[in-house]
Amino acid sequence: MLAPVVRRALPAFALLFSACAAPSTQQELESRTGLSSSEMAELRAQKGLDDEDFRRLAPERLRKILARIREPRPDHPGEYQEWRLESLRDENGAIPPDADLRAKEQMLALQLEGVAGGLDSLGWTDLGPGNIGGRSRTVAIHPTTPSIMLIGSVAGGIWRTANGGTSWQVVDDLMANLAITSIQYQPLNPSIVYAATGEGFRNADSVRGAGIFKSTDGGASWARLSATNSSDFHYVTRLGMTADGANLLAATRTGIYRSTNGGASFAKVHGTTSARCLDLKTHPTNAQIAVAHWIDDIGGAFSTVAYTTNAGATWSESSGIRTTSSTQRAELAWHKGWTGAGNGCVYAMKDQGSGASTLYRSVDGGASFAVVGTSSILGGQGWYDNALWVDPSDLDANTADDVVVAGGIDLWRSTNGGSSFTKISEWSSWPNSAHADQHYIVEHPQFNGTTNRSVYFCNDGGIWRTDNIYTVARTSGWVNLNRSLGITQFYGGSRHEGSGILVGGTQDNGTLRRNEASGYDGWTTMFGGDGGFCASDAGNSSYHFGEYVNLRIHRSTNGGSSASYIYSGISDAGSAANFIAPFVLDPNDSRRMLAGGLSLWRCSDTRAGTPSWTAIKPSTGSNISAIAVVSGDANTIWVGHNDGAVYRTSNGTAASPIWTRVDTNAPGLPDRKVLRLGIDPANAQRVFACFGGYSTDNLWETTNAGTNWTAKPGLPDAPVRDVEFHPTRSQWLYLATEVGLLVSENGGTMWSSTATPARASIDELFWSGGALYLVTHGRGILRQAPLGLASTTRVGVPCRVNGPLSGPTLNAGLPALGAATRFDLANLPPGAPAWLLASPVPPAPLPLSPGCELQVTPLALFNLGSFTLLVGQPALFFLPLPAEPYLAGSEVMTQAIAIDGADLLLSDGQRLLLGY
Question: In this structure, how many other beta carbons lie within 10 angstroms of the beta carbon of residue 851?
C-alpha cells in the first residue's frame, strides 16, 4: 500500500474521455479549437488526447496532428509496410526463409586482413546522434549492480552502460543479428544473459531475427544458441526465465518454446502453426507459474491468454479474455507484491482496435480474467506499442489502490487499479517529455516505493527514466538517457562541405541536423515526422532539403535550424510516390532539383521564394525509386523504377526531355526494385544499377550508357542500397548493403567486407570533405577518411571589401595528384573578371575590411588562372596536378578575387590537402 504522503501527491481525479465529457465543456472546446465533435473524437481515440490537450495545444497544431492521423506518421508504423518490404522481395514477391542470416554468413566469408579501399572496420567515427535515440524494445537491469544495464534496439544491437545510462557503448556490432527484442538475465547467475532477436508484432518496418543469443560473461560477448537456428526463431518477441533459473521460455511467432538446459535444446510446448505468441511473463517468485498472450490467425481467428502451473511444460487457455480477432494484442504485467491467496495477480491490457482498449485483471495466476475498465489510452495502435507495469511495492491484496502504468503512444497512470487513468507523458512535447510509442517498462531492482521510485521506459525514441513514478507528469520528472546511444534509423543524409552542417532523415525522429561543433550528443530537429532523402545546396550553406513521407519536400533557409514545405505543385506528393521517395540536387547547378513520384519533377530554382515544379517524365505506372545526374552534363539523367525499369535521357534540361528505356538491353536487368543508380564521375558511360531482394544479381554495370549490362559477381545475396566511387580511383567501389559495407579495389571483380563497421543495414553512402559517410538504418551515421585521400576544407566567408553584399563562392573538387582539380565560382557578377590565387597555408588570414579577409598569404601568391563567365554556365577552372608522390599530404590555400566596378570581391577560401 502506498504511504499516505505519496497517496496525497497522486492525482485524485479520473480521466474524462469523450463519451463522458460535459456538453458545456465539449462546446467550449469546439469553439476554442475550431474542430468538430467527430474530429475531436478522432483525436481522442487515435492520439489519446484529453481536455487538457485541447486547451493547451494551438488550433493549428491540432489540425496538423489530425492531418497526420490520416497519413503516414512516425507513430503509425503500419504505413512502412510496402515500402521497406519492396526492397527485400525478389521478382516473385518472396523473401527466402533464412535470407538475412545467409547473407551475413556470406559477408563474414568476405572478411580479409588489412584495409579495403583505404578503410578498416575500426577507423569509423560514430557521429550519432547520441541524444535522439531509436526504436528500443527492451532493457535489462543487472539484478545486483543496477548501474549496469543492457538495452536492445531493433536494428542497432545491444548497448551497455555501467553508469546507469549516463553513457552507452555498443557491445558487439558484428553479432549475426542486431534486431534485439528481449534481454533476460539468469536470476541466480547474472553472468549468464539471453537475448532474443526479431520483431514479431507485424509492424512492417520490423527487422527479422536469427534466433536466441547467449552470453556467459555478463553481456560482453554473444553466441547464437544453435538450437534456435530455424525459422521458428526468426521472430522471438519475449524471453522469460522461471524464478529458479531452471527454465528458459521463448515467445515466438510460431508458439512457445521451452529449454530446461540453458538453451542447448528447445521443445515446443504451446501453439499451432497459426499461433503467434506476443508476450510471456513468468511469476516473480513462483517458478511454476507463467502467463502468455497469443493470437491465432487461421480459421476462427482469436486473441487470448494462456497460463502454466508446471514451469511451462503444459499450457491452458485462460477464461474471460478471449476475443474473436487476430489483431487484438495484449500486454501482461504481474502485481509482484500480491499477498492474496492463489497463484498471484496479473494484469492484461488488450488492444480492441479502432482506438479502444480494455484492461483485464486475474487474481488466480492467469487462470481467469475479469474486465477492469475500457479506455482509449493505447491511441489506436496497441497492436504495435503496448506496455504495462504494476507497482511492485504495494504489498497487499487490495487491488483498488494498485498503481498501474500503461503505455501506447503516450504513458498513463492509474492509482485505483486501472479503473481510471491520467496521462503522464505527451509525445508532442518531446524532448521535454518521453518519446512516443511505448514498448517496455521496468522498475529499478531496488524499487521500494519510498526511497527508490525509479522506473525505466523503452520506446521509439530510445530509453527514458523517471525518478518518481508517482508524481511524474506530462512535461516534468522525465530524464532522457539517450546519451551516446547511437541507434537511430536513418533513410538518407547530406552534408554541406563549407559549413560542415550534416542533415539526415530518420524513421520516427524527423529530419535531424548536426554541425561539427555540436558533436555526438548535439543533434537538433530540422523538421518533424518521418524523414527521408536529404540534400544540401553546395552553393549556399543556408539551404538544406529533406522530406516528409511520400515526397513532401521541405526546405531550410537557415542552415538547417528549421524547415517548411516547398512541394506545392508536385501533384504526386502525398499519394503517388514511394513512402521514402527519391530527390536529388543537380551536381551541375545546385539550384535545380529532380524529384520522383509517378512522374519525374523538376524545380529550376529551389532558392526561389515559392519554388515551382514541372513534370518532365510521364508516368509509366510504377513509382520512381532512383535518380542520378551526370556531373558535368546536366542533360544526362538516369531514372529507376520500383518495377526494375531504367530510363535515360540526353536532353534533360529541355522542356520535354526524350526518354529511352535501357533495362531491357542485353542481357536484361532484373524486374526488382531499383534502389540506386551510380554514375562514374570519371566516365559518364559507366553506370551501376543497384537492386533489392535477397538475390544473387543485385549489382549491374554498363560501360556504354546502357547498351549492354553485366552482373557483378561475388556479392552476398542481399539488397544493394547504394554504390559510391572513390573520388580519384574509379575502380575502387563502395557498396551499401542490407548486411553492411562492401569494398572492391578492382571494379567489382572481387569484394571485401573488411571495412564494415557493423552488420547493420546501410541505406546510403556519400562523400564529403574527403570522408565517406555511412547512413545506416539502426546505427546512426558514421564517417571515415580513407588513407591518403585528398580533401578540401572551406575557410572564411565570401565578402566585398567596400560593400555590404557578399562576394562569390568558391567550390573546389578533390585535389588528386595526377588529375585535374575542378574549381567553380558561384554568385559571380556578370562580366566581372576573376582570378584564382594560391599560396602555402598561411598562419592567419589578413583582414582587408571588417568581415572581409584575404585567406591566401600575400608573401607567396601564385596566380593559377582566370575564370571566364559564360551566360547560363558556371565559371569553371581546371588545375592539373602533377603525379608526384612527394606532394601527397601537402596543403595549399586557394581563394578567388574578382573586380566589380570599383570594388574588390573575395571568395571564401578552399584549403586543399593533396592526395590520391
Answer: 12
Rounded Cα–Cα distance for residues 82 and 59 (Å): 33
Cα gap 421→48, rounded to integer Å: 11
Within 10 angstroms of residue 450's Cβ, the number of other Cβ atoms is: 11
C-alpha cell at 880: 592539373
Given a cut of 70, whether residue 77 has pLDDT beyond it is: no
Read off φ and ψ for residue 866, nearest 5 degrees.
Answer: -120, 160
Rounded Cα gap, residues 761 and 779, in angstroms? 8
0.85 surpassed by pTM = no
The closest of 465, 421, 487, 548 to 131, measured between CA atoms, is 487
Cα 194 to Cα 224: distance, rounded to the nearest angstrom: 10
Q: What is the DSSP letter of 105?
A: H
The predicted model gives 563-571 an average pLDDT of 97
Average pLDDT over residues 230-247: 93
pLDDT over 70, % of the chain = 92
808 to 556, 799, 828: CA distances (angstroms): 21, 7, 5
* Ranges 211-215, 676-680, 805-809: which has the least confidence: 805-809
CA dihedral sign of residues 587, 591, 595, 601? negative
DSSP 20-80: G--HHHHHHHHHHH---HHHHHHHHHHH---HHHHHHS-HHHHHHHHHHHTS--TT-GGGG
Secondary structure string (H, E, C) spanning 342-383: CCCEEEEEEEEECCEEEEEEECCCCCECEEEEEECCCCCCCC
DSSP one-letter string for 814-859: --BTTSEEEEEEESPPTT--EEEEEEEPPSS-EEEETTEEE-S-GG
The strand pairing partners of 304, in sequence order, are 294
**Distance between first and last Cα of the chain:** 72
Integer Cα distance of 416 and 406 in angstroms:
13
pLDDT above 90 as % of the chain: 62
pLDDT of 361-389, one tens digit each?
Answer: 999 999 999 999 999 898 878 888 999 99
Total Cβ atoms within 10 A of residue 49: 26
Instruction: Among 122-126, 155-159, 721-725, name the one with the lowest average pLDDT.
Output: 155-159
Amino acid at 705: A
C-alpha 713/C-alpha 723 separation (Å) is 15
C-alpha cell at 401: 489502490
Go through the chain and tell me how many residues it has. Answer: 916
Amino acid (1-letter code) at residue 113 = E
CB distance 247 to 228 below 8 Å:
no
Do 417 and 361 contact (CB within 8 A), yes or no? yes
> Does the pLDDT at position 324 exceed 90?
no
Give the pairing type, strands 157-161 and 149-153.
Answer: antiparallel
Contact of 121 with 134, CB cutoff 8 Å: no
Find all residues with CB under 8 Å of 864, minimum gap 6, and list them.
Answer: 835, 836, 837, 838, 877, 879, 894
Count of C-beta atoms within a 10 Å radius of residue 608: 11
Q: Residue 873: what pLDDT?
A: 65
Instruction: Give the pLDDT confidence score for residue 85 in this predicted structure.
Output: 73
The span from the CA of 682 to the CA of 729, in Å, is 9
Residues 407-415, mean pLDDT to the nearest whole number: 95
Residues 76 and 507: beta-carbon distance below 8 Å: no
- Band (pLDDT 50/70/90 cuts) for residue 37 is confident
Residue 230 CB coordination number (10 Å): 13
CA–CA separation, 285 and 308 (whole Å)? 14
Cα separation, 346 vs 555, in Å, equals 50
Q: Which three cell numbers stand for residue 652?
A: 534533360
Residues 6 or more apart whose CB falls under 8 angstroms from that of 797 comprise 806, 851, 908
In sequence order, the β-bridge partners of residue 331 are 349
What is residue 872's predicted lDDT score, i.e. its pLDDT? 56
Residue 3 exposure: Cα atoms within 13 Å on the Cβ side: 8
